[in-house]
Design a protein that fits this description.
The chain has helices spanning 19-34, 54-69, 75-79, 94-109, 126-135, 157-167, 186-196, 227-252, 261-273, 283-286, 410-414, 421-431, 440-457, 476-483, and strands at 9-14, 42-48, 82-86, 115-119, 145-149, 176-178, 210-218, 287-290, 292-293, 295-297, 300-302, 320-325, 337-342, 349-356, 375-381, 385-393, 401-409, 468-469. By secondary structure, it is an alpha/beta fold. α6 links the parallel β5 (145-149) and β6. The structure holds NADP nicotinamide-adenine-dinucleotide phosphate. Belongs to the glucose-6-phosphate dehydrogenase family.
Length: 500
């Protein structure tokens, strides 16, 4: 099936021998190609230091496709569009060669000067590459020029601003596509559809009917080989500054006047601006942290964080964060948004639970059990779908109630697996749709919010670390955070989607 919207582009991937390129970018490009969303008018120019022949590089592309998609239909033809230059990005002299190769490919494939520069590399190189792309004329092109940039975008507000100012010398804000791959996930994109396309929900989406919202993103994996990076990042910078706050913004934003990039982004910015800032004294009342100890996951013993490779044996880095966000606007005054995210937890799951307020009077107190509140659960990953938790009459005589669920899994809607986030984001960046990328204003506000927390945590040694066992639900302090408000976390394992 060929779509009408089939962009042409030279896709220049910096870091083309790396993990992201092999696991996500090459397979995503292949899927786009198979769906006809990429025609023959595209070329990929891979850049990395190791010396590879063209054949070796194309072979590495083929291998990645077979490994990660399990397919090989049309693979030779697809891989023939891939080119490689061995190049140290800190070496100024090799950019000229890169420009010449880019110009040749442009002409050969009729790419109309369209260029997508994808930085799939460590962030310390982002600024240098941006400088050279402009200085050595790679951005001097007749078509569009866009920069797609991986996380992390800075380490705090100051470094993010410095990076942004530097990149803005070569690219305008509209040309910078900052990846937050959560925004490419089908069910994250579905948040706005659920909210704005259902008469059932929009009238209830406020502090009159919602009691609290819980966003959970838990992983079973530890830090693996990323100890060096993670020691400086921690869960706060790695997950909260970007993915968690982006989900909160989508849940909290006002309906945009139109579904276009500018309107959606500006509503998200307004939602982030409404986050109540915390004073230093308030940080530990609203946010708690954890670090995993050894434990058991899926029957296997796993080490504690402090004994992972490249991790300080007395590390103060948090591998778990839970927090209460207060949104100071008319819609949300009085409704806490709770977030939690961590590594080495009992299950891998990203879910949003919207808990509705109890009905004003319970007519069914004659039953043994209390009525359970209505919940709307949005399953982001690994399951994708929506569940509505209601109360209904228990079968048999009498008027006892029982909780029931209405579930829809996206597999049952589309009858296929939803596309991988990177596939959608690559396609959007080639089409020039920046809706699902983060605007600088969002990045800046998120960093400012998170910086207030890190300023306190980095200056106080957490003496209770490690404070949760690998394979558990996280530290007790996270439960206490909600107990103070009379709530509790909805256990993710009890919210699984029903088979539809
Ligand atoms: P990686 O596996 O370490 O790959 C880094 C790439 O950069 C390699 O191709 C490496 O190739 C190249 N490289 C390093 N120094 C270079 C230099 N001086 N000049 C030219 N090339 C150089 O890293 P990754 O996991 O793919 O991550 C890349 C980026 O994506 C990072 O910003 C990361 O935070 C982000 N990210 C990754 C994932 C993921 O799933 N992997 C997910 C989200 C975000 P040579 O050694 O051959 O030079």
């Amino acid at each position: 099936m060929t779509e009408t919207n089939t962009p042409t582009a030279l896709i220049m991937i910096f870091g083309a021998t790396g993990d992201l390129a092999h696991r996500k970018l090459f397979p995503s490009l292949y899927r786009l190609y198979k769906k006809g969303r990429l025609t023959d008018r595209f070329a990929v120019l891979g850049v990395a230091r190791r010396s590879l022949t063209l054949e070796e590089f194309q072979e590495s592309v083929r291998k990645s496709i077979v490994e990660f998609t399990g397919e090989q239909d049309g693979l030779d033809e697809f891989a023939s569009h891939f080119y490689y230059q061995s190049h140290d990005v800190t070496d100024s002299s090799s950019y000229i060669q890169l420009r010449e190769l880019a110009n040749k490919l442009d002409e050969h494939y009729g790419l109309e000067g369209n260029r997508l520069f994808y930085l799939a590399m460590a962030p310390e190189f982002f600024g240098t590459i941006g400088d050279h792309l402009k200085l050595d004329g790679l951005t001097d092109t007749a078509g569009y020029k866009r920069l797609v940039i991986e996380k992390p975008f800075g380490h705090d507000f100051e470094s993010a601003q410095e990076l942004n100012n530097r990149l803005r010398q070569a690219f305008s804000e509209e040309e910078i596509y900052r990846i937050d791959h959560y925004l490419g996930k089908a069910m994250v994109q579905n948040i706005q559809v659920i909210r704005f396309a259902n008469a059932l929900f929009e009238p209830l989406w406020n502090n009159r009917y919602i009691s609290n919202i819980q966003v959970t993103s838990s992983e079973t994996l530890g830090v693996e080989e990323r100890g060096r990076y993670y020691e400086k990042s921690g869960a706060l910078r790695d997950m909260v500054q970007n993915h968690m706050l982006q989900m909160v913004a989508l849940l909290a934003m006002e309906p945009p006047i139109k579904l276009n990039t500018e309107e959606i982004r500006s509503e998200k910015v307004r939602a982030l601006r409404s986050l109540r800032p915390m004073s230093q004294d308030e940080v530990n009342q609203y946010f708690v942290r954890g670090q995993y100890d050894e434990g058991t996951i899926n029957g296997e013993s796993v080490p504690g964080y402090r004994t992972e490779p490249m991790v300080d044996p007395e590390s103060n880095t948090e591998t778990y964060v839970a927090g209460k966000l207060v949104i100071d606007n008319f819609r949300w005054a009085g409704v806490p948004f709770y977030i939690r995210t961590g590594k080495r937890l009992g299950s891998k799951s990203t879910k949003i639970v919207v808990q509705f307020k109890d009905i004003p009077m319970n007519l069914y107190y004659n039953t043994d059990e209390k009525l359970t509140p209505n919940l709307l659960v949005i399953h982001i990953q690994p399951e994708e779908g929506v569940t509505l938790h209601l109360n209904a009459k228990k079968s048999g005589s009498g008027m006892k109630t029982t909780p029931v669920r209405l579930s829809t899994a996206s597999k049952s809607i589309d009858r296929m697996n939803t596309p991988e986030a990177y596939e959608k984001l690559l396609y959007d960046s080639m089409r020039g749709d920046a809706t699902n990328f983060t605007h600088w204003d969002e990045v800046a506000l998120s960093w400012k919010f998170v910086d207030a927390i890190s300023a306190v945590w980095e200056n106080t040694k957490e003496t209770t670390f490690p404070n949760y066992a690998a394979g558990s639900d996280g530290p007790q302090v996270a439960d206490q955070l909600l107990e103070k408000d009379g709530f509790e976390w909805w256990p993710v394992e009890n919210l699984e989607i029903d088979n539809c």
